[in-house]
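Hi again,

Forgot to attach this to my earlier email, sorry! This is the prediction with zinc ion bound. I've pasted everything inline since the attachment limit keeps bouncing my files.
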Amino acid sequence: MELKLYDTLTREKRVFAPIDPRRVRMYVCGPTVYDFAHIGNARPEIVFDVLFRLLRHLAKQGVWDGGKGDTAVTYVRNITDVDDKINARAAEEYPDLPLNEAIRKVTEKTDRQFHEDVAALGCLPPTVEPRATEHIAEMGVLIERLVQSGNAYVAEDNVLFSVASMPDYGGLSKRPLDEMIAGARVDVAPYKHDPMDFVLWKPSKPGEPAWPSPCGIAAPGRPGWHIECSAMSWKHLGETFDIHGGGIDLVFPHHENEIAQSRCAFHTGVMANYWMHNGFLQVEGEKMSKSLGNFVTIHDLLYEWPGAVVRFQMLMSHYRQPMDWTKVSTEQAATALDTFRQLTRIPQMANPDVGPVSAAVLDSLMDDLNTPRAIVELHRLADQARGGDYDAASDLLASCNFLGIDVSSVDLQEMAKRRHGQIDEDKIKTLVAARSAARNAKNFAESDRIRNELAAMGIVLKDSKDGTTWEIAR
Ligand SMILES: [Zn+2]
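Structure tokens for the complex follow:
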């Protein structure tokens, strides 16, 4: 079985083969730390975490005849900590502080929050999490190279990439040239040679974050957004690497420009061999926006649900498909995981690492991370486990663990109890017994009255041939 991945650049699904089998290299564009991440931002974190886990597993199995330890896969996810949005947020939130101090407060707080959230979503820490502000020197080296090779020019203390200098610019997004020009015309600085040229470096205003500028520019400045990913992937992965990932919204202009910078600086045919993009996410059938009031942050969701539920729901859609985030599917995910927890309780107690990962689950992931198909397999294992198949129960648990889904964290009755506050279990048991006695005596008026009394307390009864059980209404 071979791993096949869909590559946005060539628009085809291909067998994955690493450049260096001893070290599989993946770069994913990470967050800009200025605000709570919304649920759309969680999608790449979860999707590429599943890929990271799968790559590590395959390396361990010796699939590429290379390194076998956890170091066999290097996963780099950057943190953008220099950006105009950060500056704006800092000035707004801390108007009385010097800007740089305010920026530090905003980025530190957001960064901490982001890490807590992705950990709760079951994501492993990437191998390296480079920060843009710690790679200004590498950005300067790249910018100088691009100017020397005639791919960039200095204009009014800015450095701009000359799109015309790269004949095959635009290969990733495959946008028609006139469309790209029309997009670029929205905001054309007078010093640009061509409207499509983009910023590599720009001067900072007094009080803004600033570093010594490259290319002999006297005024201090700061980098453009795209150059940071070219610099950080180069530093940590080399001139060419295996996989570059991110959300579909990054294809143009961000990834297109990363490719232009890296390929022209290093004179290479590709920047990465596989470009992977996760699809858009909308909420209840609508585009998420603060003005529509449907802006769902990861933090809000995690207040209500265990991270495993959010992760499972995310994996219910194939990563390349657009996804509609609905309350109904959150409930479905929660119910499924609560069932899985109950079915795997015995192997969980015996050994948390019990059982092999289901071959059918792995096969599904090998086919361009087909997680919906993997989830169908989990349900199939659950059906077998329900029929008393212990091996299926332990395979189910192992497969959920492999996907980073902690089923033991999803107990809907416990959650309902917490929401409900204090309950008087003795009183409930007494009432349930009294109702059973009334039913046995065929006193249905009394049994209905007790059922209603319990319902008013938020208790739901379930009658079966084995007797009556109760639970807290969700
Ligand atoms: Zn990037």
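Residues 39-60 form the longest helix (22 residues). Residues 29, 229, 254, 258 surround zinc ion (CB under 6 Å).

That should be everything now.

G.
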